[in-house]
Amino acid sequence: MTAPRRRRPLPPARRPRARFLAPLTAITALCGGLLLGPGAPAHAADDHPAFTIQDARVTESSGLAASRLHPGVYWTHNDSDDGPYLYAIDGRSGRTLARITLSGIGSPRDVEAISLGPDGRLYVGDIGDNLDGTWPHVWIYALPEPKRLRDQTVRATQYTVQYEGGPRNAEALMVHPKTGRVYIASKRESGGNLYEGPAKLSATGTNVFRKVAPVDLWVTDGTFSPDGRTLALRGYFSGTYYDWNDGHPKAAGRLAVPLQRQGESLTWTTDGTTLMYGSEGVRSEVRPEEAPVRSSPDPGATKPTPGGGKGSGERGQQGDGADSGRSGAGQEDGDKEGAGKDTGGTTGKAVLVVALAGAALYGVRRMSGKRAGK
């Protein structure tokens, strides 16, 4: 009987040699850099970095709103026992660029939220009620967003608010960026409701907010996307975003809420790419997370200066009350000067990229052929 023939073992699979791949890897990286260039959009975390609020006066940052006039600046305020103050914070250094004193209103009781409306006004929600039904009414203050970032007093309009069904606690106030309508989300551990204000607030009468949808969340703040198509609500440890659906919100998914000391604030960046999450506490951190859906940018927002991206952030003074006399003037002029300059350069870069990639591939194939012929 003939013995079975022994099969020769298969040769081990050859891995691509690093020296073959190195030229292609280098060329790929170079091509990416050439195509993207210094003016290309960066990731959300690069455009909107985390920052720590430096001002010792801000100990209970309870609301957050991205400035429309001053790129990279965020408005915030303390929770209670502070007074009628708003703080403009540089979103890179965390320094205070201005403190605004509101006049024409009563004594704030429990300020919990801030939002920018399409009319260019900041809406401040004095809507907190920690005893969940103590106050028969709450207030909203509205003031024009200051064009110059300096310590100043600005006159505000005060609106009286009551809820359909009686008093309740709330910490989230959102102004729809298209209709200008104001919404408030009540705060209850078992879940609250979303309330809609009148089409136009009255400064002389009582504004009744009516329930439009339940909210299965212990809400601490909320924000609309710049295009008004998405509503995001956060709690201490979780969050939900909703398709706005013309005022009939439908839950669409969960938010990636970062772990924070006492997460109580949220705002959408004006470019529509990022959600910024804030917290109470001394030297509290504001952290970026990529937005769950991309929104078209706020058409009314001032664009960052080309190359800098810091807007007014380098022009203020930290919490010392000094009038810097500057507000980022000339940013729009800078945008105009930089517009339309790179159209020809992009074509040249594309041609160079194709040539370099072809040369790299040809080199790799020749090196592989020589090795196979040995």
How many beta strands in the DSSP annotation? 21
Low-confidence spans: pLDDT under 50, at least 5 residues?
Answer: 4-43, 307-357, 359-374
Assembly context of the chains: single chain
Strand order of the largest sheet: 6-7-8-10-14-13-12-11
Portion in helices: 10-25%
What does this entry look like structurally?
The structure is a single chain. By secondary structure, the chain is α+β, with helices and mostly antiparallel strands. It has helices spanning 18-36, 44-47, 331-338, 343-372; strands at 51-52, 63-66, 73-77, 85-90, 96-103, 113-116, 121-126, 138-144, 152-155, 157-163, 170-175, 182-186, 192-196, 206-215, 221-224, 230-234, 239-243, 250-254, 263-268, 274-279, 285-290. The strands form four sheets. Strands 6-7-8-10-14-13-12-11 form an eight-stranded mixed sheet, with no helix packed on it. Helix 1 runs antiparallel to helix 4. The protein is globular, with a radius of gyration of 27 Å. It starts with 17 loop residues before the first helix and ends with a helix. Residues 4-43, 307-357 and 359-374 have low confidence and may be disordered.
Short characterization:
The radius of gyration is 27 Å and the shape is globular.
Topology of this protein?
Blueprint: H1 18-36, H2 44-47, E1 51-52, E2 63-66, E3 73-77, E4 85-90, E5 96-103, E6 113-116, E7 121-126, E8 138-144, E9 152-155, E10 157-163, E11 170-175, E12 182-186, E13 192-196, E14 206-215, E15 221-224, E16 230-234, E17 239-243, E18 250-254, E19 263-268, E20 274-279, E21 285-290, H3 331-338, H4 343-372
Parallel strand pairs: 5-9, 10-14
Antiparallel strand pairs: 1-21, 2-3, 3-4, 4-5, 6-7, 7-8, 8-10, 11-12, 12-13, 13-14, 15-16, 16-17, 17-18, 19-20, 20-21
Helix pairs in contact: 1-4
